[in-house]
Amino acid sequence: MSDKKKLGMIAGGGMMPVEIIKYCNEHGKEIFVVGIEPYAQEEELKDAPHIFAKIGEVGKILKAMAKNDVHDIVLAGGIKRPSFKELIPDWEGAKLMAKLAIKKMSDDNMFRAVMDEIERHGFKVVGIEEVVPEMMFSEGLYGKVKPSSDDMDDIQRGITVAKALGAVDVGQAVIVQEGMVLAVEAIEGTDMILSRAATVKKQGKAPVMVKVLKPGQDMRVDLPAIGLQTIEQLKKYGIKGIAVEAGGILLIEREAVIKMADDSGIFIIGMKI
């Protein structure tokens, strides 16, 4: 991604758009943001020029990007997949919906179709790691807490299972205790997988969590991320630590996350897979 080109961001909720805006401001990178209602909030976008739009207002979004001389566009933040009944599209949105409705699509295919439509209008969709390379996990330990050799055995077991699940588009995370898979991620999110694991875990060694990329993951969209809420959840449910795929998982609010993990006795490690 060229530093000379203005960056556009289509932003959902959460801290990821905040971190991208902060990075751009600190590095003198121009950015213009379209916040997707009701997910993005004014407080999160206040440090960048921005407007708000509904997810179906594709024409409004693309016209705003063009008016603000955007070239590269990054997609960041949480947006739930809406039902067609929830959408009130503009004309461009209606045309895109018609394309998507031709056949039932997985989330991955839907995101690719949306990105193809954005690029058809002359923009380039870029990955978060191209915008904020420091946000991507690298190989190695984060913080002071180290996994034991038994933890590493569980991590390897978790990697094998998580990659198998990802290959059939089920999920990207698993919880493992002494070689036993306690829970796997489906559509419900991190809190639910951890709460399920907590109900079946045994006495003794604490479980570990493993989070990986899906095979063939499109790096431009929907990358898994670790943040403060993740560490809070690990502590709440008695999980000893988390291993993530280096070069594929994002770390939001790095310093605060590492401090919280250290204070909670939780390890964080990036694994080359």
Q: How would you describe what is shown here?
A:
This protein has helices spanning 16-26, 42-45, 58-67, 91-100, 107-120, 128-131, 149-167, 190-200, 228-236, 254-264, and strands at 6-11, 31-37, 50-54, 70-76, 124-126, 140-142, 173-177, 180-184, 208-211, 225-226, 241-245, 250-251, 267-271. It has 273 residues and is α/β, with parallel strands linked by helices. It has 2 domains: 6-133, Rossmann fold (3-Layer(aba) Sandwich); 136-271, Cytidine Deaminase, domain 2 (3-Layer(aba) Sandwich), CATH 3.40.140.80. The strands form 3 sheets. Strands 6-13-11-9-7-8 form a 6-stranded mixed sheet. The chain has a 5-stranded parallel sheet with strand order 3-2-1-4-5, sandwiched between helices. The chain starts with 5 loop residues before the first strand and ends with a strand.
CATH-defined topology of the largest domain: Cytidine Deaminase, domain 2
Q: Uncertain segments of ≥5 residues (pLDDT<50)?
A: none
CATH structural class of the largest domain: Alpha Beta
Arithmetic mean pLDDT? 85
Strand residues, percent:
15-25%
Largest sheet: 6 strands, mixed
Spatially, the strands of the biggest sheet line up as 6-13-11-9-7-8
| Global geometry | elongated
Helix proportion range? 25-40%
What's the structural domain tally? 2
**CATH superfamily membership of the largest domain, which one?**
LpxI C-terminal catalytic domain
Radius of gyration: 19 Å
Number of helical segments with 4 or more residues? 10
CATH architecture descriptor of the largest domain: 3-Layer(aba) Sandwich
> Structural class, from helix and strand content?
alpha/beta
The rounded distance between the terminal residues' Cα atoms is: 26 Å
Provide the succession of SSEs: EHEHEHEHHEHEHEEHEEHEEHE
Number of strands: 13
